[in-house]
């Protein structure tokens, strides 16, 4: 809209005729008349002279049928040829409105949607009722059950913007979009899709200011920055002093119901989006409230629908009545065992049949009866165990997530192997069967090879391993000869 106003202003400025800067009206009207007989000025609309018509009176004639039209009562001037409704010739009338006619006559049994000849003049008359196409859709066409004519379909009509895919509003079939089209009237201005989908098109060309006056020769906007010599008000906008484009301002409010502008402080009238809340009597299971209205946009509340008696959402609440003490049952906490359910500590009102987690028994402390139960449950050392550490019984099947590890022979003393086993990723246990029943000590999983002693070394000597270099102790007996140990 801003661009359209700017274009019109620029065109009018270049043409030398700008309505918003029109010259002041002359103090006296230079009377002009439609013809020499008229007495009414075309400029000011006042009777400024006596009319000089030579009028002939034509009386009213009532139309009899569509072949014989009538006319209203009027006066016709033989000099200027004008038609008038008064005998003085001041109230002129369009000749089109002099003649009166009656509608053509359709056969009584004609369908209201049929095209059928008039019984008087024979001309076609058109029925304005809707065709009955039965199970056919208006977009596809079909034979009308009332008039028997074949009605051509309109073609499928998109239920969304024409540029995007959608569905026919008649038959529901998929309608292919036409594709987007830039709606900008000049290539140097930003635009939106011409079909109203909201897709933005940036300008594809630079402004062209060939004459150097600062205004684009194509779009008539400023080729550079706009100039506001009289200032630009953020609330009321301003007009560019160079291209005469008007840019609207906008008031700033905290929400849709705020009455005072944050910038200029101007006050406005607003309509709240009211929700009526009927009165609710307080009880021992919920809070009540008085009747009130509140705005779902700004959150304000009133005691009347006219929004004259202001209140707040805390003042309308009626605190619920307390639970009679004789109806309250206090249940002590009881721990659950392996075979019997327990419960948390709770309070029960036998009047309203509600359970509460605290002795104050406020509505927000209400709980479901299932929340009071602590289910019986065995305790296991880990998630895979079958043995309960409390009742000391096997109470379930193993639940291991086992991975099979095949037997691997050791290569040497530095590369050990392992026995065949199964490993659980959950409890990190080792087992010698695929069902996870017989658990193994992790110390017995590796298979190691002995270090290699140099050949020819004495069996009682400490030597270094030929593979890993570690010291190897000889376990043979020393030979001391004739000496004693």
What would you say this structure looks like, in words?
Helices cover 3% and strands 19% of the residues. The protein is built from 1 helix and 36 strands. The chain has one helix at 2-15; strands at 55-58, 70-71, 74-77, 83-84, 92-93, 99-100, 115-117, 124-126, 141-143, 150-152, 166-167, 174-175, 191-192, 200-201, 238-239, 246-247, 274-277, 288-289, 292-295, 301-302, 310-311, 317-318, 328-331, 342-343, 346-349, 354-356, 366-367, 373-374, 402-405, 417-418, 421-424, 430-431, 439-440, 446-447, 463-464, 471-472. A 4-stranded antiparallel sheet has the order 1-3-4-5, with no helix packed on it. Strands 17-19-20-21 form a 4-stranded antiparallel sheet, with no helix packed on it. The longest helix is centred in the N-terminal third of the chain and has 14 residues, at 2-15. Residues 1-27 have low confidence and may be disordered.
Percent helix: under 10%
Oligomeric assembly? single chain
- The order of strands across the largest sheet is 1-3-4-5
- Class based on secondary structure composition and strand pairing: mainly beta
Q: Provide mean pLDDT, rounded.
A: 86
| Global geometry | elongated
Strand content: 15-25%
Largest sheet, strands/sense/barrel: 4 strands, antiparallel
Low-confidence stretches: 1-27
By DSSP (H or I, 4+ residues per run), the number of helices equals 1
Q: Distance N terminus to C terminus?
A: 118 Å
Radius of gyration: 50 Å
């Amino acid at each position: 809209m801003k661009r359209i106003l700017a274009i019109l202003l620029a065109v009018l400025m270049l043409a030398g005729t700008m309505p918003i800067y029109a010259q002041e009206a002359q103090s006296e009207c230079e009377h002009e008349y439609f013809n020499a007989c008229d007495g009414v000025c075309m400029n000011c609309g006042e009777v400024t002279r006596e009319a000089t018509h030579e009028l002939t009176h034509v009386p009213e004639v009532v139309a009899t049928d569509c072949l014989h039209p009538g006319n209203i009562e009027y006066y016709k001037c033989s000099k200027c040829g004008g038609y008038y409704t008064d005998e003085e010739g001041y109230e002129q009338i369009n000749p089109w409105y002099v003649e009166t006619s009656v509608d053509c006559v359709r056969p009584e049994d004609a369908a209201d949607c049929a095209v059928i000849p008039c019984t008087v003049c024979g001309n076609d008359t058109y029925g304005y009722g809707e065709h009955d196409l039965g199970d056919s859709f208006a977009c596809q066409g079909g034979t009308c059950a009332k008039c028997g004519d074949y009605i051509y379909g309109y073609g499928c009509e998109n239920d969304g913007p024409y540029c995007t895919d959608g569905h026919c509003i008649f038959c529901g079939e998929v309608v292919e979009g036409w594709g987007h089209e830039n709606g900008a009237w000049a290539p140097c201005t930003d635009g939106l899709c011409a079909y109203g989908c909201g897709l933005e098109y940036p300008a594809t060309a630079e402004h062209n200011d060939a004459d150097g006056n600062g205004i684009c020769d194509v779009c008539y906007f400023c080729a550079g920055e706009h100039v506001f010599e009289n200032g630009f008000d953020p609330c009321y906008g301003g007009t560019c002093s160079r291209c005469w484009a008007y840019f609207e301002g906008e008031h700033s409010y905290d929400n849709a119901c705020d009455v005072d502008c944050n910038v200029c402080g101007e006050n406005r009238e607003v309509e709240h989006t009211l929700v009526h809340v009927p009165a609710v009597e307080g009880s021992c299971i919920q809070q009540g409230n008085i009747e009130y209205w509140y705005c779902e946009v700004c959150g304000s509340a009133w005691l009347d629908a006219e929004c004259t008696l202001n209140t707040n959402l805390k003042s309308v609440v009626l605190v619920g009545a307390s639970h009679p003490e004789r109806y309250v049952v206090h249940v002590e906490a009881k721990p659950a065992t392996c075979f019997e359910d327990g419960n948390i500590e709770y309070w029960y009102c036998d009047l309203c049949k509600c359970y509460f987690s605290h002795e104050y028994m406020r509505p927000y402390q209400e709980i479901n009866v299932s929340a009071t139960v602590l289910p019986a449950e065995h305790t296991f050392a880990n998630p895979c165990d079958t043995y309960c550490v409390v009742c000391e019984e096997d109470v379930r099947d193993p639940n291991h997530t086992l991975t099979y590890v095949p037997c691997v022979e050791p290569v040497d003393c530095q590369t050990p192997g392992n026995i065949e086993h199964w490993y659980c990723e959950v409890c990190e246990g080792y087992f010698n069967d695929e069902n996870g029943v017989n658990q193994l000590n992790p110390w017995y999983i590796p298979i190691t090879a002995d270090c290699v002693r140099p050949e020819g070394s004495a069996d009682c000597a400490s030597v270094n391993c030929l593979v890993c270099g570690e010291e190897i102790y000889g376990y043979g007996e020393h030979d001391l000869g004739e000496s004693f140990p």
